Protein 1
Amino acid sequence: MEWKLDFISEKNFTKHVKTTIEKYGEKLESFDVKRFNKNIIDPIKLIFDKTVYRSTWETIISNEIFRQRDKSNNNDIGYFHQRIFQYIQNCRVPDNGKEGGWDVIYENADGIVLPDGDVVHTIYVEMKNKHNTMNSASAGKTYIKMQNQLLNDDDCACFLVEAIAQKSQNIKWQTTVDKNKVSHKRIRRVSIDQFYALVTNHDDAFFQMCMLLPTIIENVVNNAEDITIPNDTVIDELQNIANQVDNDARTLSITMAIYMLGFSSYNGFKEYLTIDGN
């Protein structure tokens, strides 16, 4: 495969993808019934979902496993979006809590031209995965941090960079601090594609990265011996539970097996079936 990104090497990009996948940690471990039901699932909800969405038990169970895994994945993807800039020229990613706690710092001795024509030599970045993840208190705190940076350095700008923004943009960030509307031309709200364009000098750099990403992830997963591929057994174990007979040689349905995950100690259910002491 011909490498098409000139702002990051194939070696560094592959290394970064692999490190991001490794951050998934225990989320890559397979799900069995015990892990699936660790926090006790809601059988009523699953049964409603299956019926209303005209789905199968295999799909519903798979979706619930995905939901449980996904709850903590945002931090891992945040790592991907932030730490990739350590490999891009003129960017650095400070260690946690260092250099003011900024996520990324971009410096260019030749100058950085802002949309209104101002020229600065440093940009301090606070990075967010999604545009709606900050409440008003968090937004106010971040804005004040940026104001303080501008007071200490008149040759800089501060960016709130959003991986999932409402649209492609590089605009003045308008927010509320102490019930007052505030904005400053050097405190900006920037979608991640616009930030890539700024630091790489390629308007479609983020697009180019995204186009290569699936192939690199696939290669890493297929070739890395130390990355576990989940082999979830929940639906098979539920089928085994369903096939257990405790009353009049009747075949227990998957529906009853689902009920037993949440209600095995409830009146009526506990008399119907005991699941291996769980």
Protein 2
Amino acid sequence: MSTPSRLRIAVDLDGVLAETMTAWCTLANHEFGTRLTIDDIDGWASWRKLGVSKDDFFRLLDEAWDDWEQVPPTEPGLAAKVRKVETFGSLDIVTGRSRKTVPSAKNWLAHQGIPYERFIRVDGWRDKVLLNYDVYIDDAPDLMPLVSRNPAMRAILYERPWNREISTMRGVVRVKGWKQIPQVLREIF
């Protein structure tokens, strides 16, 4: 494993940096006449519960990036909080965003002042572990067991309504906000 000053850190975009599900809810409510909030999205495959097709779910998620200026950060003062994490090593944005949304996502990151070295798009969340980062900061519940199986990897699970049911596992630490992440990195490395 790398030393704390040289950690390779993968940071997810949607739900960890960008509050895209708020924008998604706005679009879904307009299109389907619903009154959804982010708290209604309490599972990784919430489209089943919400009565929305998987295709519509992901189409609206892409459309949320069409108006990237309206996508809020997950927390106030996010850029400063991410800069504190960046002091632990190289920080890359690793996301499963669709190709067509990558320019908007990069514009959003620049507009928000979020520091990163590389922007890496993967085809799906499972592909993230193939990149062999030391630490994954992510909200994907299904990614956590994959990271947990590799003794060289750690994950910081950014708590969201859709991942609250994830049980404790080796190498995975749950946080409620970015302010906790530097302390977690100091404790685990």
Protein 3
Amino acid sequence: MLHVPAGVFVMTAHFEGKRTGVVVRSVQRCAQEPPMICVAIRKGHWISPLIRDSHHFGLCKITGTEKLLIKKFAEPNRPRDGDPFDCMPIERMVSGAPILSRALAVYDCEVARHLDLEADHEIYIGKVLAARVSPGVPDPPPLISE
């Protein structure tokens, strides 16, 4: 969970043969036991129905230098046609959400809460079902002593 508070993340989801992802920059730990993550995404994104129907999402931390991934999953005007994961190495964990194989850290989550705010973003709180950190990725310094 140390890798959550900072960085660029791709949130992923799949349902009934459809899969997509979106770059998100607002990610935060919100519980330690059980481990939970809070993600804010722009309201109305096409990933929302997939998360709603599957009740799961993946969260993949990438470097800011991953220009192709950032462009492929960036909002706002990426076309929805086709599968954005074609020709891209992916894996699956517990939920089956697509996980980018080259991500620095990944979190496979089950939706615990969805908050539809009176704002331009909505919030998903996910219970972490599985996680991994790529070999050689150093632990970031702690935010505060707990």
